[in-house]
Amino acid sequence: MDLIKAHNEKYRFFADIAGTAMKVYNEYRPGLMESAYEAALEYLLKEDGHIVERQKFLPIYWRSVQLEQHYRLDLVVDGVICELKAVGYIDKEHRKQLWSYMNLTHTRYGMLINFGQKDRLFSEWYERCSDGTIEKVRLL
User: Fold this and answer.
1) Taking 80 as the threshold, does the pLDDT of residue 122 lie above it?
2) Domain of 34?
3) In the chain, how many domains are there?
């Protein structure tokens, strides 16, 4: 197997999730609240046999003490954190939010999906490396 094919196969799950998100985008188009895209994406992914957790609770700790504050992850699909947006454009703050979730949970993979752009669905894919750095993933 050649290296490009092996690389693309390793990250195929990103393309699968993005493909399902594209179905939602094509049906709903931009303009809805994030929760509508989230519900539809959850439904379709479950229909395809994926394990999906919606609005997954993420507690916040100060050292070993759990605080009375928490986050909620939009979707976790087969262990991949999917941060959904319905905004005109993606900013660095949106990426930082996803990366923080990945670091707090020690999750290896994350996706940022934006349904808010009028001309296309936007998605970025990330992998958390063993040293804690986060790198953007691209299919070749």
Assistant:
1) yes
2) 3-137
3) 1
